[in-house]
What does this fold into?
Amino acid sequence: MPDTLLTGRILAYDRSPFDGDPAEAARLHEALVIADGHVAALGPRADLRAAYPGAVHRDMGERLITAGFIDAHAHYPQTAIIASWGKRLIDWLTTYTFPEEARFADPTYADEVAHRYLDLTLAHGTTTTVSYCTIHPGSVTAFFEAARARGLRAVAGKTCMDRNAPDDLRDTAQSAYDDSKRLLQAWHGVDRLGYAITPRFAPTSTPEQLEALGALWAEYPDCLMQTHLAEQPDEVAWVASLFPAARDYLDTYEAHGLLGARGLYGHAIHLAPRERARLAEVGAALIHCPTSNTFIGSGLFDLAARVAEDCRVGLATDTGGGSSFSMLRTMAAAYEIGQISGTALHPAQLLWLATAGSAQALHLGDRIGTIAPGMEADLVTLDLASTPAIAQRADRAGDIWSALFPTIMMGDDRAIAQVWVAGRPVT
Ligand code: GUN
Ligand code: ZN
It folds into this structure.
């Protein structure tokens, strides 16, 4: 494939907008060159034209080019039950989620939903998802095959549950270990795919299952591990009754080898001081799922406080507990929750969380999430005037951040003008 010279307004971060003035954390560039699926160069249009005379030129005009969005926690099998009414976490799981996840025993259904999910998320500008699958190994195969067919970087794992779930959604400690290991060996590191060992959460795993999955992680320490942590007060109380010897919720994971820097802990809202300190100490990632936290009624994640404690934080939809496939909508929800908690997150911080922040949470910050030479060319081109309401607001903007903010707050898939995966336009 010939090199591509892409011109437009290219937004590239030089550093985290949580260190120093957020508005100065990124700069606009005129052009970038894509070669072999990677960003080869970034800079002034005339310089890159001269340096790459054979490159095919694609001009995006006034559109804003950013790194593709990275959704650090989603459940692709919950695609069809998104926006289900009226339940809080445990009732929501038993009423809507478990019956739907049981359908994934049928590989044809898993395949159909995996393709539908990735079509939807790509249309919303998401170029990497970290997804839970179901307990069925075929649900993992379906997701990885669908992601691979699109050339996507993706992370996923078999959800493991050996108690407190319906009969047809339970594995065992041994089968969870064996199936996870087989899937991990088949998929981890294949093309752009990575495996995440996935105990659903402490209430649906026996100590024996947590122990087996901790042992598996110790055998494959370069894999990620994903689970849920302290999402709702009722759940925290349930965990305390199920694990009477544990110091707290986090300890149910820690005691079984499931706490580490490559651990992704979804929600992490209702934490005790020891848990917060320990998560920061080991460098674990907390995944903020703001639309889910309001939709299921879980509570307010204090992002500013966690960042101040030096916690790694990623941003996620938590589809289908979350109420949107859109990372723009997710940034807006993070802003709204920040406001309720007393911190107005800057647009530079919101976009960074959805790109570089999530990439760093996944330990993929050297490959995706920012636009710089050597990075994989997963890109999103945003129309900052995608609806009349947004256009009239953006018209008054004095700088790029005030031009972007109306799209963050009011934008949807109409704002996603084009998506590039590994240097190829896919929408
Ligand atoms: N906790 C355990 N499983 C789930 C899930 O599927 N969604 C959410 N939001 N929380 C969970
Ligand atoms: Zn979740």
